[in-house]
Specification:
CATH superfamily: Vaccinia Virus protein VP39
Oligomer: single chain
Strand content: 15-25%
Number of helices: 8
Distance between the termini: 47 Å
Shape: globular
CATH topology: Rossmann fold
Structural class: alpha/beta
Number of domains: 1
CATH architecture: 3-Layer(aba) Sandwich
Radius of gyration: 17 Å
Length: 206
């Protein structure tokens, strides 16, 4: 059985067996392989890095090279039961557009990201006056792939702007362990190193 990082295992637990799934920015395919082989999902993936695409194909996965910023617009609406974007939205050029497309093409959307509002990040900025490096954000400022860092509060505001209904929120701790949380409260924004949101398109108000 494939062993997953704790945060990926938490995402896997959100996915019902046998669903039709798209993993956007699927990396080397560890999560997609687990869901395909252990949960029986009909899984597809898109990944920007050709090296990672090759790794996915070597695992026997159906993964295409693609860019979340541009290629999601080509997918029909509601074509997948679940769409996953793990640790990627902060590296996209247009997070709002990407999230709109995720909610459009999936009946349910799962997004995870590092929390730039964590107290260690705030303290490092206050004391050192330089961009912090943490376990979740371990890059020099000029080398990071993360171009749109956000806090949990920032993402919650974006989800509301995109007319998403929050179904479940998990806080991610230092070891990757997760627990259910209320994203609207101040605690997760200060103490969580990352977050996982499960969402669906909100019902029309008309």
């Amino acid at each position: 059985m494939t062993l997953l990082r704790p945060d990926l295992a938490a995402i896997a637990d959100m996915v019902p067996a046998g669903t039709r799934l798209l993993d956007v920015g699927c990396g080397d395919g560890a999560l997609l392989e687990y869901l395909t082989r252990e949960r029986g999902v009909d899984g597809r993936g898109i990944e920007l890095s050709q090296q990672n695409v090759n790794a996915c194909v070597a695992r026997g996965l159906s993964v295409l090279q693609g860019d979340a910023d541009t290629d999601l617009a080509e997918y029909p609406s509601q074509v997948f039961d679940v769409v996953i974007l793990s640790q990627t939205i902060q590296a996209t050029r247009a997070p709002s557009t990407v999230l709109h497309n995720l909610l459009r093409i999936g009946r349910h959307t799962i997004v995870s990201f590092p929390n730039f509002g964590h107290w260690r990040v705030r303290l490092s900025l206050l004391l050192n006056g330089r961009m912090p490096r943490t376990a979740a954000l371990d890059y020099a400022w000029h080398e990071t792939p993360n171009i749109h860092l956000c806090t949990i509060a920032d993402f919650l505001a974006l989800a509301r702007q995109c007319n998403a209904e929050i179904e479940k929120t998990l806080s991610v701790g230092p070891s990757g362990a997760t627990h259910a949380t209320n994203a609207s409260s101040w605690g997760p924004n200060l103490f969580a190193e990352g977050a996982i949101f499960q969402m669906k398109p909100a019902r029309s108000q008309n």
